[in-house]
């Protein structure tokens, strides 16, 4: 849970960033000695993003390598905050810890193994989250080979999954589903813009889900309070999924999700209506 009392944030205070990008990471080089994925991630944000009103909060393990932290400071400069995290891997706890340090009205959750494709990705997310009833917006993510990794969440037979997975980049999808802003039952926290007040209202990420389904749970908590969740294909990123950690899914996590949400997970998808089309 986020141990703070939410305060009104109708306007970002002068001198504070509008968006706080929170990136949990080990901040270590790969096992083969190659460059750290978080360095590549932050480099792509700083060098490619046309939107500049942000801060980057890197929540790193106690065992972070000094040269990795130094590289991050050199790349991001004054926009970077390094936050140490002690304890075993827990994505949810690291995200919540980062949000406590954040100053922005919007939280942009990011995995450390993503890289930017579209320079205006933040503008697209900001535009899509503009309606007051929209709490979270997700992006179009691709595997390294260019196929779709994420076009929103769906629940199939009670099992959360990604829409569009494995489809070629540029695919229209059923009824043009991959071409338009759509309402979804949820989106991945690998890249999601979230209203801070809504995030705090639902208690942030569930720390009992350390590795998987924490974004599914967050999405369902937000929707249970009447918020909408949208996905846009106009913010494009690569997601080198599970490069930095084990991709294994704990049976406990799936059981926990089913115990909490029950029949809600039997819903295949939300209305799937086109929210906006520019075709």
From TrEMBL:
Domain Glycosyltransferase 2-like, residue spans: 20-202
SUPFAM superfamilies, per the entry: Nucleotide-diphospho-sugar transferases
Residues annotated as transmembrane: none
Protein's UniProt name: Unannotated protein
Organismal lineage: unclassified sequences, metagenomes, ecological metagenomes
């Amino acid at each position: 849970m986020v141990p703070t009392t939410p305060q009104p944030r109708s306007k970002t205070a002068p001198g504070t960033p509008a968006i706080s990008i929170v990136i949990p990471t080990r901040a270590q080089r790969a096992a083969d000695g190659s460059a750290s994925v978080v360095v590549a991630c932050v480099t792509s944000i700083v060098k490619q993003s046309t939107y500049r009103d942000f801060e980057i909060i890197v929540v790193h393990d106690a065992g972070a390598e000094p040269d990795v932290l130094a590289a991050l400071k050199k790349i991001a400069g004054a926009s970077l905050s390094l936050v140490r995290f002690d304890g075993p891997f827990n994505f949810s706890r690291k995200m919540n810890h980062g949000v406590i340090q954040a100053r922005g009205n919007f939280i942009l959750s990011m995995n450390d193994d993503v890289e930017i494709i579209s320079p205006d990705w933040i503008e697209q997310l900001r535009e899509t989250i503009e309606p007051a009833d929209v709490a979270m917006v997700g992006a179009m993510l691709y595997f390294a080979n260019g196929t779709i990794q994420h076009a929103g969440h769906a629940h199939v037979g009670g099992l959360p999954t990604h829409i569009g997975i494995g489809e070629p980049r540029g695919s229209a999808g059923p009824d043009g589903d991959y071409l338009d802003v759509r309402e979804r039952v949820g989106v991945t926290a690998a890249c999601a813009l979230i209203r801070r007040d809504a995030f705090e209202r639902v208690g942030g990420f569930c720390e009992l889900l350390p590795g998987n389904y924490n974004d599914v749970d967050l999405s369902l908590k937000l929707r249970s309070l009447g918020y909408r969740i949208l996905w846009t294909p106009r913010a494009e990123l690569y997601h080198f999924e599970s490069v930095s950690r084990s991709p294994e899914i704990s049976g406990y996590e799936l059981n926990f999700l089913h115990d909490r949400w029950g029949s809600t997970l039997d819903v295949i998808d939300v209305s799937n209506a086109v929210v906006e089309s520019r075709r």
